[in-house]
What we know:
- The complex is a heterodimer.
- Chain A is 39% helix and 26% strand.
- By secondary structure, chain A is α/β, with parallel strands linked by helices.
- In chain A, the strands form 2 sheets. In chain A, strands 6-7-8-3-9-10 form a 6-stranded mixed sheet, with helices on both faces.
- In chain A, a hairpin with a 2-residue loop joins β9 and β10.
- In chain A, α5 runs parallel beside α6.
- The mean pLDDT of chain A is 89.
- Chain B is 64% helix and 6% strand.
- Chain B is built from 15 helices and 4 strands.
- Chain B has a 4-stranded mixed sheet with strand order 2-1-3-4, with helices on one face.
- The longest helix of chain B has 32 residues, at 176-207.
- At the A-B interface, α2 and α3 of A face α1 and α9 of B.
Amino acid sequence: MSEDNIIEVENLVKKFGNFTANDNLTFTVKKSEIFGFLGANGAGKTTAIKILCGILFPTSGNVIVAGFDIYKERNIIKQNIGYMSQGFSLYEDLTVKENIEFYAGIYGVKRKEIKIRLDELVDKLQIHDLKNKFVKDLPLGWKQKIAFSVAIFHKPKIVFLDEPTSGVDPITRRQFWDLIYEAVESGITVFVTTHYMDEAEYCDRISIMVDGKIDAMGTPTELKTMYKAKNMDEVFVKLARKQTEEIK
Amino acid sequence: MRILLIILRKEFLQIFRNKIMIPIIFVMPFVQTLVLVYAATFELQNTNITIVDLDHSQMSRKLGSKFDASPFFDVEFEQCDYDNIDKMLLTESTKAVLIIPHDFENDMRMGIKTQLQLNINAIDGQTAGLISIYVNQTILSLLKELKPFMNKTDLSVMPASIHAKPQFWYNATLNFKHYMLPGILTILISMIGIFLTSLNLVREKEMGTIEQINVTPIKKWQFLSGKLIPFWLIGLFDLALGLFIGVVLFDLPIEGSIFSLFVFSGLYLFTAIGLGLLISDFADTQQQTMFTIFFFFLIFMLMGGIFTSVESMPIWAQYVNKINPLYYFIKIIRAILLKGSGIQDMMNEFFALLAYGIIAMSVAVWQYRKTS
Lengths: 248, 372
């Protein structure tokens, strides 16, 4: 494993019965980069992310996350990663503060440390009046920002974000990305799936998945040149069209 | 250990914030004991009976007033109109019709065999049997009164010459409530152990929060202990509450030791919670969980001996009861409360429940997956 790679995936295959969700994926993610994992709905992004997080077993292939093997060292991996799913998994009937204390606690963050980091977070996000509210009473945008903060509260090496911004307005999405940049600056690697192509431009490197395979990979600029496209949107459409023509 | 406490704290916060959970924990014991114990009774009381008096004699009126005075019957006197009697039985406005024939008094005075006709609605066979017995006893009581004044009695029902005088052990007054209450308490803590545990676990799946838990380094035993211990404690708490209600309101006797009752209850709840966890392993939604548990719980409850005696069930049914945890616990709780049995008297049941609990819990924990 190379020094600057934090995730190494080699020939990863995941099958559900006859259906192949991940077809021979091979890619690496470098330390402290924002790696965008793009693809249409059902392309297999979530499956791949769940395998990397250790909640799904791969059918075959080698996966190393944060230097540990996905087959044998899942629990050490879990200590070193954060995860925010599509359904942002905060407890709706707990307050913001209780959610943070709960998750930080089960990651083993010390009580004193929780208090310090919580105060910092409250100041940073300006949520003095929100912290004692139930999560169910928060607007969607706040739920997502807080879910992200919870996912990186224990200072993981990598954070996996599965369509973290779906369903919110552009301004909130922009704010969310500010949080992501901040996390990267503190040394966290960000692995993000999205189907907003403008967000793809914010990533250092992206891979585009079509039907369980990685069809293209590179920096946004590289991909745009390669597909002679003005923006990522065009790249994506061209790739998708290529796919439909193949089916024909 | 700290992680377990963190999970317990979160569980209790959620349980006490749940609008449905609080009534279930604090109100259900009252409702079940008060409503079910009074309602689910086999005792005959205020049964509607219609008497058709064709004799209109002193004797027939005396018989009528005997029924009237009985606490078991609500009597109505009717004219002889067979269509009407048919209709009354059909519409269930009366449970039984007793017809006193012409010449009833005359025949009795003359010592001629006389017969009364009794028509009972026997859709519920058990009640019908009881009505028949009570009616006969009421008639007998009239005979006993008359006996000194008569030289010869030759009625269809004669007082038995040999009379066995029963002495009822363990429930001397045949108080039906004392028999029912332990059964109701069993239902109560079974529901907490199986239903609430299972629903609580499946709720995390339904909300999607289980995924977030699964990516944390939390260990299976920590998470499951945190999920199960609250309901074990709530089950024991509700048992104590139910016992308290039983003692205060129904004079429920506690012949055995409270300690052994709670040892057994702790063991039984362990088993019930294991079953709850097992069901939640295979269900994805709370709805599936409810239907699955309903299916098993109904069978367990009806076969376990709460309402009917297991000894009078067919042999195969008695074998089925070997895998019914309710069966063991009902036997145990009745024995401790009414007979004063101790743990040493119920070693078989103890080991059966212990084995049951260990197997159910092990399979359930083994089936529970953090990674699929």
